[in-house]
Design a protein that fits this description.
Layout: E1 12-15, E2 22-25, E3 32-35, E4 49-54, E5 65-70, H1 72-75, E6 79-84
Antiparallel strand pairs: 1-2, 2-3, 4-5, 5-6
Length: 86
């Protein structure tokens, strides 16, 4: 994650297809640091999470915007969204 991504700045983010969560790890030690959560503290969950990518700082979004795609409804439909750190 970029240096301006809130609580998980400079950490390794790993999306999980199975449970739909995005977990953060220390890139140096591999230690689990937590799960991306909503403002109310509940984990963000995107069923059948496919991909994660940060914006490029241009027309592809701000560098601290995390874009995701997921295969909702048993991968019959696609979902595209963005997560902004608070």
């Amino acid at each position: 994650a970029p240096a301006n991504f809130g609580k998980f700045s400079n950490d390794l983010l790993v999306g999980n297809f199975g449970n739909g969560r995005i977990n953060a790890f220390d890139p140096g030690t591999g230690a689990f640091l937590g799960t991306l959560s909503s403002q109310n503290g509940l984990p963000l969950v995107f069923n059948r999470l496919w991909a994660l990518d940060f914006g490029n700082g241009g027309q592809g979004g701000q560098t601290n915007q995390l874009f995701f795609s997921a295969g909702i409804q048993n991968e019959q439909h696609g979902l595209f969204g963005v997560i902004a750190a608070m």
